[in-house]
């Protein structure tokens, strides 16, 4: 577990920000791992499910094995601040994860991929990895973003109460952590995907809001 007090230094965050050259190199390395002639599938498990930000020609409910969805990254800009950090999802080792695989068109330009890279990779919070997607009887490679445990924003495994407090109170330039949680829950449910941990967290956060909104009895 990482305490937010010890890892939310703005100077360190800026030092971790990848340069344009580093982002291009990371993209090149990821694409080099793509099997020749294979379609380019991206695996979405969090905000990419409901806000992909790129054009796609197909999508499938897909399962990956060896990783699970977890709120293990502090968000100090987009869904929180340095003073009150939020939480966002990444993939951690162990278990499995059901999400959405998006197939990009063969005509997808490098510039479109660079936009995705700037969105997901600029702070070094993730490692891009090729994993095996399972959709019914089909098996195919998917590109996924997994947690970088060495970045300053890595929270690791947190107590549930601390997660709820952060999700319920943090807000950044793209909105609140609670909105991120609720939109993720809605996207999962709309695709028939059950994630009990996300559901329970959403229930706890809504209960927190209800307690705060309830009139005090003196």
Give a short summary of the structure.
The chain is α+β, with helices and mostly antiparallel strands. The protein has eight helices and seven strands; from the N terminus they run αααβαββαββαββαα. The chain has a single domain, classed as Hypothetical upf0131 protein ytfp (Roll), CATH 3.10.490.
3D structure, described in words:
There is one protein chain. By secondary structure, the chain is an alpha+beta fold. The protein is 38% helix and 29% strand. A three-stranded antiparallel beta sheet has the order 1-3-2. Strand 4 and strand 5 form a beta hairpin. Helix 6 packs across helix 8. The chain starts with a helix and ends in a 5-residue tail after the last helix.
| SSE run | HHHEHEEHEEHEEHH
- What's the number of structural domains? 1
Large-scale geometry: globular
CATH class identity: Alpha Beta
Q: Please state the structural category.
A: alpha+beta
Number of strands: 7
Uncertain residue ranges: 1-6
Q: Look up the CATH topology.
A: Hypothetical upf0131 protein ytfp
State the distance separating the first and last CA atoms: 38 Å
Strand order of the largest sheet: 1-3-2
């Amino acid at each position: 577990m990482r305490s937010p007090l010890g890892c939310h230094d703005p100077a360190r965050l800026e030092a971790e920000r990848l340069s344009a050259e580093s982002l291009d190199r990371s993209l090149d390395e990821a694409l080099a791992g793509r099997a020749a002639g294979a379609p380019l599938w991206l695996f979405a498990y969090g905000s990419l499910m409901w806000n992909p930000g790129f054009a796609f020609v197909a999508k499938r409910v897909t399962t990956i094995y060896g990783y699970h969805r977890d709120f293990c990254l502090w968000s100090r800009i987009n869904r929180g601040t340095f003073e009150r950090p939020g939480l966002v999802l990444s993939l951690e080792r162990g278990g499995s994860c059901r999400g959405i695989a998006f197939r990009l068109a063969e005509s997808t330009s490098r510039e479109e991929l660079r936009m995705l890279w700037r969105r997901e990779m600029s702070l070094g919070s993730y490692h891009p990895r090729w994993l095996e997607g399972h959709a019914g009887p089909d098996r195919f490679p998917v590109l996924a973003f997994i947690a970088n445990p060495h970045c300053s924003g890595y929270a690791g495994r947190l107590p549930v109460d601390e997660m709820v407090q952060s999700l319920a109170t943090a807000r950044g330039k793209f909105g609140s952590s609670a909105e991120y949680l609720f939109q993720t829950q809605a996207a999962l449910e709309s695709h028939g995907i059950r994630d009990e941990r996300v559901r329970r967290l959403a229930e706890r956060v809504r209960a927190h809001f209800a307690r705060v909104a309830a009139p005090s009895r003196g």
